[in-house]
Structure formats: C-alpha cells, structure tokens
Amino acid sequence: MLYFRFGYKMRFLERQQAVNVLYDNLRDKSKVHTSCNPLKFHLTDTGVIVETDGEVFEGDIVVGADGVHSRVRQEMQRLAAADMDEALFRKEDGK
C-alpha cells in the first residue's frame, strides 16, 4: 500500500542509522541542536519555527529521534490533525 501511495518500497532503519546518515550529510553541523526540549512547532511558508525551553530556532526541517514517547511526534501529530483528518492520528489504544 505504501508503495502505491508514495512510489517507493518501504524501508526500515534503526534510529541511530537514520540519525547518522542525516548528520553525516549535513554541510553545516553547527545547526544541529541536541538535548533541547522542544515545546511547540510553528509551520511557516518557508519551514518551521521550534520553541524550546529557552531558545527559538528557525529551520527547514525538524528530525525527531527522541524515542518512543517522542515530543516531536506529538507536535507533528498536533499540526497534522489541525490540517487533516484527525482519524489518521488516533491513539493506538483506540481512543
């Protein structure tokens, strides 16, 4: 099903492999911010603004590799639900 939707076969990577591939291919590694506590995202016409617990960052993309209880995932779901069908983002427990 995903192949038909996106035109690519499904691939799986361990989280650390994905982070390494992304990081290794960055031109400016100084723009990578780890150990931040993302609180809220704001989409703009050109990218995203991320509010953390002390700073505000503006960029093109946010990559969440913050584990199973991902704050980044929660924010992405919040933004998507505001623009799309909330049924796509139901909790796994059916609520």
Written description of the protein model:
- β1 (38-43) and β2 form a beta hairpin.
- The mean pLDDT is 79.
- The protein has a three-stranded antiparallel sheet with strand order 1-2-3.
- Helices cover 29% and strands 16% of the residues.
- The chain has helices at 2-6, 15-24, 71-83; strands at 38-43, 48-52, 56-59.
- It contains three helices and three strands; from the N terminus they run ααβββα.
- It is globular, with a radius of gyration of 15 Å.
- The chain has a domain at 34-95.
- The two termini are 25 Å apart.
- The chain is an alpha+beta fold.
Brief descriptors of the model:
single chain, 95 residues, alpha+beta, three-stranded antiparallel beta sheet, 29% helix, globular
Radius of gyration: 15 Å
Task: Please list the strands of the largest sheet in the order they lie side by side.
Answer: 1-2-3
Mean pLDDT: 79
Number of strand segments: 3
The percent range for strand residues is 15-25%
**Unreliable parts:** none
- Most strands sheet: 3 strands, antiparallel
Note the total helix count: 3
**Order of secondary-structure elements:** HHEEEH
Helix content: 25-40%
Helix/sheet category = alpha+beta
> What characteristic shape results from the CA principal axes?
globular
How far the N terminus sits from the C terminus, by CA atoms, comes to 25 Å
